[in-house]
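User: I'm writing a tutorial on reading structure tokens. Could you give me a worked example: one chain, its sequence, then its tokens, then a sentence or two explaining what the tokens reveal?
Assistant: Sure. Here is the example chain.
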Amino acid sequence: MVTSPGLRQQSGVRTFLRVGGTIVSLIALGLVIGGMVSFFHSFNAEPFSEDSGPGNFWMVFAGLPLLAVGGWMLQAGFLGAASRYVAGEAAPVLKDTASYLTDGAGILGIGKEQPGSAASGPYCSTCGVRNDAGARFCDACGTALA
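And here are its predicted structure tokens:
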């Protein structure tokens, strides 16, 4: 029996992290904004009165750690989607790089060009583009291939 490397309730955990992270971040943002409003409002109060200090400035100190926790929850909730996006963007580039650096031989099978593939012929001496095996002229610049 093959077991999945993920959690049993992976989609539920992912949904919890995404929704919970959003809620925690919004509450934290409200606390930080409320604390900053209290702080800046204290500058307009009369000196040496009961309202002279920032009464609710403690909300900033409660909101900042909560903002970090909400951000971490959101990062964990969207980690799979972000990883799939990065892999989809990076894998073709890595394959092309391995093929280019090894002249089509590949590195551990990555970037190995198959015989008869579109770009298995000579490189152009003028522009450096690899052409088809039976090409007489460069596909990019039109120079005659030797």
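What the tokens reveal: The longest helix spans residues 10-41. The two ends are 58 Å apart (CA to CA).
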